[in-house]
Specification:
heterodimer, A: 174 residues, mainly alpha, 8 helices, B: 180 residues, 2 domains
Chain lengths: 174, 180
């Protein structure tokens, strides 16, 4: 039963994952925290932080973590495959349809998606802003992060910045 | 390329590329170009992977693997993308679950989240600038506001809100298109 729930929950995450990892966060939060209660809000933040310092798409990282937490290795495998296989079926179908043209249709859809992705990104930022503006120390780290992202090195290697900021957190928040 | 070579290439890309699907797509472009993969096919794959649902990294791997070595190639490529993050999280999740209440770990994660907030802030800024500047693009404000209102205030399932946002934009007159 738990495995079926994991499969269905993460299939929804996969099918709604448009526009790159961060814009998927509102959907992941809705399904994992509000719908199924697999994670608390703090737990969600932990998974997000963990996903940012490990390789791989956020949706996949979240699937492996929550799947493992709920049902061990089997759960991790089922959740991870679900988040990937459900959208791949759509990719296969569309790629087959596109053999007979209609590239214009794809372009129109991608353009129509744009404001929605911008809205999802904005929504992804709100809870993060609550954390970042919760005290002087967090505001300082947030500002330092904005400054550091002007440097090419950190723009190309965000996890380096995340790790440094995490280490700074050990001094500021303990 | 054989499926095994595809597996190894995508495994390596996935293990060393942090920073999400777009970064993986860029790495895959570079690596495939080195191996003589035709440029216009790469552009088609990028267009599909970024407009269809699902993690961009796995869609890219599937489509490229399928083109290069059929279904075995597609499966090998997706497996290559998935295994590094899968094992990384498996290794770390036990540790995180055992220490979830430790002050040390929460302080570290809080620090990480401040920097993630900074990154997301710059993404939001860039995305908003791209979405609303240009001829006819002010109309994008309507679906943008609709999606936010539906999720934040109406508490609608994000998938339903997204469908409304895309639907509304398709009904409105089109502005200047973006190339990907």
């Amino acid at each position: 039963m738990e495995l079926l729930k994991l499969a269905w929950g993460f299939a929804q995450v996969g099918i709604g994952a448009f526009g790159g990892g961060i814009s998927t966060l509102p959907l992941i939060r809705h399904i994992l925290v509000d719908n199924y209660g697999w994670l608390s809000l703090d737990g969600f933040d932990q998974v997000l932080a963990l996903a940012q310092v490990t390789p791989g798409p956020i949706a996949v990282n979240a699937a492996t973590f929550v799947g493992f937490q709920r049902a061990g290795l089997t759960g991790a495998t089922v959740a991870t495959l679900s988040v990937v296989v459900a959208p791949l079926l759509i990719v296969i179908a569309v790629a087959a349809l596109l053999q007979c043209g209609s590239k214009d249709c794809m372009d129109r859809f991608r353009n129509a998606l744009r404001p929605t992705v911008a809205a999802l990104l904005t929504l992804a930022f709100l809870p993060l802003a609550r954390t970042a503006f919760s005290g002087i120390g967090t505001i300082a780290l947030f500002a330092a992060g904005i400054g550091a992202l002007n440097l090419r090195f950190f723009r190309e290697n965000p996890p380096a910045l995340f790790l440094l900021s995490g280490l700074a957190g050990l001094f500021l928040f303990l | 390329m054989t499926p095994l070579e595809l597996f190894r290439m995508f495994f390596k890309i996935s293990a060393v590329t942090f920073g999400g699907g777009i970064a993986i797509l860029a790495m895959a472009k570079t690596e495939l170009r080195k191996r003589g993969f035709p440029e216009e096919q790469m552009a088609d794959i990028a267009a599909l992977a970024t407009s269809l649902p699902g993690p961009i990294a796995t869609s890219t791997a599937w489509l490229a693997g399928r083109k290069i070595a059929g279904f075995p190639g597609a499966f090998a490529s997706v497996a290559g993308i998935l295994l590094p993050p899968f094992f990384a999280i498996l290794l770390l999740s036990g540790f995180v679950l055992a220490h979830r209440d430790s002050a040390l770990l929460s302080a570290f994660f809080k620090g990480v989240l401040c920097a993630v907030a900074a990154l997301v802030a710059t993404l939001v800024y860039g995305e908003i600038r791209r979405t609303f500047t240009g001829k006819g693009r002010w109309l994008n404000l309507l679906p943008y506001a609709l999606v936010i209102a539906l999720i934040l205030w109406a508490g609608l399932h994000p998938l339903a809100a997204m469908a409304c946002g895309v639907g509304l934009r398709l009904l409105l007159p089109e502005g200047t298109r973006w190339s990907c």
